[in-house]
Write a structure and sequence with these properties.
Elements (H helix, E strand, L loop, with lengths): L2 H16 L1 E5 L2 E7 L3 E7 L2 E13 L13 E4 L2 E9 L6 E7 L4
Antiparallel strand pairs: 1-2, 2-4, 3-4, 4-7, 5-6, 6-7
Length: about 100
């Protein structure tokens, strides 16, 4: 078994135990979710709270279309926007940064 295949198998086992549900395009995926960072950003009318965090989902969960910049995802009943997408051929996870949506 290749190192990449071993990593993928191990990560699937971890996510099965500790993954949290993320919804994208009506489908629920199990993901590793970082601790959300809450910041105050100055906007017209005052300061607004914004949230950023990352989610890691096994790349094999997306055999066709993958989430892309600007897509919406739901976590714990709240909608977020994909603001960064990271993917590396040797890493078996798709890494997405989610941020508070611009409304």
């Amino acid at each position: 078994m290749s190192l990449k295949a071993e990593k993928a198998a191990d990560l699937l086992a971890i996510i099965a135990d500790v993954g949290e549900p993320i919804i994208w395009n009506g489908q629920t995926f199990s993901a590793l979710v970082s601790v959300p960072a809450i910041a105050q950003e100055f906007e017209i009318g005052g300061f607004m709270a914004s949230v950023d965090f990352t989610v890691k989902i096994p790349i094999q969960m997306f055999p066709g279309v993958r989430p892309k910049h600007g897509d919406r995802m739901t976590f714990e009943g709240n909608d977020y926007r994909v603001t960064r997408v990271a993917n590396h051929p040797q890493y078996p996870m798709l890494v997405l940064t989610l941020s508070s949506p611009d409304e």
